[in-house]
Design a protein that fits this description.
Blueprint lengths: L1 E2 L2 H15 L78 H23 L7 H13 L9 H14 L2 H14 L4 H13 L3 H14 L4 H13 L3 H14 L4 H13 L3 H14 L4 H13 L3 H14 L7 E4 L2 E4 L5
């Protein structure tokens, strides 16, 4: 909780009065983040007149046969190509084998395998986790890929198990995948994210360390490791990781804002203003950057800019108003979660 000086009391009282009659934000704006407190209640809906029109008519009907997310997966045959060739008794004339039909059959088998593997990979992220698990399991059971090439099927299934909340199966698959591809920075990162979600910071840190050791330019791992350092109050290490990540991806607004957050924890208000200003230049709608900069301006005694930034922050994200508390003549600001 951040204690404000006496001159800021009137600032926040003015702010509270100014935002009391604020309009409900447009529905096109982002909703409040999962880590934020519940939004203000009492919002009223507006009547929207929609003009309905008949769909355009077409002269021809087109049937689409490409796979779609909800389409049942094909049942892969266990014997693959051998079932495509008619097995004749010993001594039969090979000329009687219909190789054309066998070729068509093989093509169909390959297409079915393609559908299953693509469902496992889930490139567009639209497939439901149970479908991904089914597709990856079928791909593994039918040995579509052999040896070390199987690692990505295990990794994709691990991610789906993780999304389903099946922690043990997710960890088992991550471990098996890493046995096949121990030098995969991304796999170590993904398992580190899994450990972090289980509040096992030590295990997560080990995986992030390994990922960065394999690929020192792996920004997601640097960012996640910085968050662990921050949570442990190792601010110098957190700043070092954020600075390296910013050097690698200077156009990512979130990195600048998160480094500014660490500066704020160290009461480096000038550093906060610098980083949050850069974040705002990259993303003018990043509400948290305005809010953090407002706190820094308050620490520097810049009343006008502090008021302006708080108003902008709350206007962009009304849930941030829950981090402003006024009791009598005492006003406090709380930091939103990193």
């Amino acid at each position: 909780m951040w204690r404000l000086t006496w001159w800021q009391v009137s600032v926040l009282l003015l702010l509270a009065a100014g935002t009391a009659g604020a309009q409900v934000p447009n529905s096109s704006q982002n909703g409040q983040p999962p880590s934020s407190p519940p939004g203000a209640s009492g919002a009223t809906s507006t009547n929207v007149n929609e003009e309905l029109t008949e769909p355009p008519t077409t002269k021809e009907q087109v049937t689409v046969t490409a796979p779609y997310p909800g389409q049942p997966l094909p049942a892969l045959r266990p014997d693959e190509f051998i079932n495509c060739v008619q097995q004749l008794p010993q001594g039969s004339d090979p000329k009687t084998i219909d190789y054309t039909q066998a070729g068509i059959c093989e093509h169909q088998l390959n297409w079915e395998k393609h559908i299953v593997v693509e469902a496992c990979i889930n490139r567009d992220g639209k497939a439901a986790p149970p479908r991904v698990i089914q597709a990856c399991t079928e791909s593994l059971d039918h040995k579509i890929f052999e040896g070390k090439e199987r690692f990505f099927l295990l990794a994709d299934r691990a991610g789906a198990y993780f999304a389903e909340g099946d922690k043990q199966h997710a960890l088992d698959d991550y471990n098996e995948a890493l046995k096949l591809a121990p030098r995969s920075a991304e796999l170590h990162y993904n398992r580190g994210v899994f450990y972090a979600a289980q509040s096992d910071a030590d295990a997560a840190l080990r995986d992030f360390d390994t990922a960065i050791g394999i690929d020192p330019k792996f920004v997601p791992a640097l960012r996640q490791r910085a968050k662990i350092y921050h949570a442990r109050r190792d601010f110098s290490s957190a700043l070092a990781d954020y600075s390296e990540a910013i050097n690698l991806q200077p156009k990512t607004a979130g990195l600048w804002s998160e480094r500014g957050y660490v500066c704020l924890r160290q009461h480096d208000f000038e550093g906060v203003v610098k980083d949050e200003t850069q974040a705002i230049q990259l993303d003018p709608k990043l509400a948290r950057a305005y809010f953090l900069r407002a706190i820094a301006f308050g620490g520097l005694g810049d009343r006008a800019n502090s008021v302006s930034d708080i108003q902008t922050a709350v206007g962009l994200d009304p849930s941030l108003a829950h981090y402003v508390t006024i009791k009598g003549k005492t006003a406090s600001l709380a930091l939103p979660p990193l």
